[in-house]
Amino acid sequence: MKAVILAAGEGKRMRPLTETTPKPMLEILGKPILEHIFDSLPDAVDEVVLGIGYLGDQIKTHFGSSFGGRAIRYVERMKPLGTAYGLWMCRDLLGDERFLMMYADDLQSKRDIERCIAFPLAMLVKKVEDPRRFGVVVVDSHWRVTDLVEKPEVPPSSFASTGVKVLDGRIFNYPAPQRENGEYYITDSLRALARDHTLVAVEASFWLPIGYPEDLARVERILNDRGRV
Question: Which residue range or ranges hold the Nucleotidyl transferase domain (predicted)?
Fold first, then answer.
């Protein structure tokens, strides 16, 4: 199984730390965020497609053509045009097969991801106090996704997308429209996909989004207290 990890962003909210270092290479407990993400990948993943852009050579130099027993293929020179744009850039390396999609600035639980890949189409969600800065997910009584909204002012639920998704080639039948800010959001593609196909929401037990410099110390404290992801 392949995993797509989008790691091309500039990490503007992490400045000044990201002025010379790409966000996925910032360290937590002595190793880059992206290494922690590799550690969380299920054993079923044998190949990783890394989407890189800003200071991407640092990522490529560190991880090389394989890491942790997994082959790595790179999609380079990605532009900051949103999550759907990033996935579409990887399309030629994915075909119609099922794949895992993740981002390079969230720490997840390997056990949660393993639960997610048990379904043909699925996404990890977690209840949060203020979901307005995330993609918000609405589910029915059977945990089927019925709606998704990107960063709504009035959230229709308290479930936020953690960024982990299990998809296949069908997602490419639902290209996202360009938003007013010029970006293309995978939330829009998922919303359309869920209208035609069963997209299951799996509630995550653990999720640490990393958005600001102060998050690094906070995440280190949580991981130290927890022992491991």
Answer: 2-222
Instruction: Please name which of 195, 37, 34, 38 lies closest in space to residue 121, comparing C-alpha atoms.
Output: 195
What CATH number is associated with residue 85? 3.90.550.10
Tally the domains of the chain: 1
What amino acid is encoded at 183 in this protein? E
For the stretch 6-42, pLDDT in tens is: 999 888 888 998 999 999 999 999 999 999 999 999 9
Find the domain containing 54 and state its range: 2-226
**What whole-number distance in Å separates Cα of residue 67 and Cα of residue 71?**
7
The residue among 135, 132, 183, 144 whose CA lies nearest residue 163 is 135
Pairing relationship of beta strands 27-28 and 31-32 according to DSSP bridges: antiparallel
Predicted local distance difference test score (pLDDT) of residue 159: 94
DSSP 3-state of 203: strand
Q: pTM for the whole thing?
A: 0.93
